[in-house]
Amino acid sequence: MKLDLTSLESAVASLERSIKAAAAHEASLPPELRETIRSGIIQNFEVAYELSWKMMKRWIETNISTEAVDGVTRRELFRQAAENRLIEDVDRWMGFHSSRNETSHTYDQETAEEVSACAKEFASAAQSLLTALRERND
Predict the structure, then answer these.
(1) Which of 5, 44, 71, 102 is buried most deeply by CB count within 10 Å?
(2) pLDDT at residue 3 is higher than 80
(3) This prediction's pTM
(4) Which residues are catalytic?
(5) Are 74 and 53 in contact (CB under 8 A)?
């Protein structure tokens, strides 16, 4: 059964648009607008990250077995995704996971800047995941 990748495609595209908007205009904007754009990047990162790991899980459930991902840790899920060539680097994805957790527990200037930087790195990893899912979406 094919997975519907539409929601993940939209989330990744939205993240990429917010990153491009920041890159194109950030230097010329007043601080409050830069903060607003950064908040948008972080919001888009949160959504794209959540959809990414859930899509990995759905792919494994559909193509391997539901038992393979039932009750596993995020690291184990990422390990299985790497074994099935959906992602390349488990530790990199655990870093994204840590950044996502930061957005839930703390929101200060320094954390926002760190998560925003991570979101920019995540965009390419999410695009790679989408490519792998499209190629292996039986």
Answers:
(1) 44
(2) yes
(3) 0.92
(4) 100, 105
(5) yes
